[in-house]
Amino acid sequence: MTIQTASRLGNVKEYYFSKKLREIDSLNKEGKNIINLGIGSPDLPPSPEVIKVLQDASALPNVHGYQGYKGIPEFRNAIANWYQKWYSVTVNADTEVLPLMGSKEGIMHICMTYLEKGDKVLVPNPGYPTYSSNINLTGAEILPYNLSDKNDWQPDFEAIEKEDLSNVKLMFVNYPQMPTGKNGSIELFEKLVAFAKKHSILLIHDNPYSFILNDHPISLLSIPGALDVAIELNSLSKSHNMAGWRLGMLIAHSDRINEILRFKSNMDSGMFKPLQLAAAKALELGKEWHEQVNEIYRSRRDKVYELLDLLDCTYSKDQVGMFMWAKIPSTYNNGIELADDVLYKANVFITPGSIFGSEGDKYIRISLCGDIQRFEDAIHRIESSTIINQMK
Ligand SMILES: Cc1ncc(COP(=O)(O)O)c(C=O)c1O
């Protein structure tokens, strides 16, 4: 049977990784055993205490029914306490917190709640591709704003203000930034809030990486008055190694929460109660938890430095988050060329920067997810491949 897909899918292509993973799959079937350094799915387990809560709670008879659309109070309270403890942000657990099945889900809810044809949205280039694909589904227009090394990967507000901003409704921002690894700062967040106020734009700050390789997590909502113009998305995927559990949150003014619920409550129902109880436990974890996770990421990052040096790439050591972003050597035209060379000659997959936007064309991104041995093996494969001779 053939059936016409809805025209809203017109501009939405298959996610790059889904296509590339198929290619990697077929290379693996040929016996290539590709080392995948592309995808950012945390390989470390959550805390055993968290798993125990899930196990114990699942065994109870009265936790298997539908849950409320706004999550259970235990999870919402844990989120509010977590925001207070780590970000010094006070939020009302009942009216300003909305549990989500991951922050990716929240991006869709926000787009569906606020956007339609005729609206414009500021989107970082390079940035997380889901912002653009979800905006495309609504018929709104994407207005990319460039992040570059020259601007230290921060928005150039003067350049943005030269555009016609009259129909701009939302602006996506994300610090620590993926893929560039640029950390946020109070100064930058103050500028963003002032910009949003000046132009009546709703800021969507996506903050899933603030605990990874970062000693001082900050929230955009710590800027006075931010809740009037901003929504923050957050997630347990990376901070607590729970990506597959699908646990995230949206913090916003109560009016925004109610608006978003008008869409979300028609799309899904509350999460499994034991998952929410386990998430509440995870959010209580202390500094030691984050320290030991970051210790492991640090040792992997050292290996990635070695690998990038071998490839003659240049990079900043100030990056935070779960990836390393690096500029390719001038011997390659773009990141795709380098990534394909490494894939076909050394059986190692790394991500070309252009999948995050045109400004990423001369860059590659390497994920820190994976056992240290995998990084050592990848280095060994690259060292013994023809790529190295080519570089000499
Ligand atoms: C910038 C950014 N935002 C959001 C997400 C989605 O995370 P979650 O697992 O919370 O849906 C990712 C995941 O890769 C990401 O890189």
From TrEMBL:
Enzyme's top EC category: transferase
InterPro entries in the record: Aminotransferase_I/II_large, LL-DAP_aminotransferase, NHTrfase_class1_PyrdxlP-BS, PyrdxlP-dep_Trfase, PyrdxlP-dep_Trfase_major, PyrdxlP-dep_Trfase_small
Gene3D superfamilies: Aspartate Aminotransferase, domain 1 (3.90.1150.10), Type I PLP-dependent aspartate aminotransferase-like (Major domain) (3.40.640.10)
Keywords: Aminotransferase, Transferase
Domain Aminotransferase class I/classII large: 33-382
Source organism, top-level taxon: Bacteria
SUPFAM superfamilies cross-referenced by the UniProt entry: PLP-dependent transferases
Keyword Protein biosynthesis annotated: no
EC assignment: 2.6.1.-
Molecular function GO labels: pyridoxal phosphate binding; transaminase activity
Cited Pfam families: Aminotran_1_2
Cofactors that this protein relies on: pyridoxal 5'-phosphate
PANTHER family in the record: AMINO ACID AMINOTRANSFERASE, L-GLUTAMINE--4-(METHYLSULFANYL)-2-OXOBUTANOATE AMINOTRANSFERASE
Family (UniProt): Belongs to the class-I pyridoxal-phosphate-dependent aminotransferase family.
UniProt protein name: Aminotransferase
Organism listed in the record: Rhizosphaericola mali
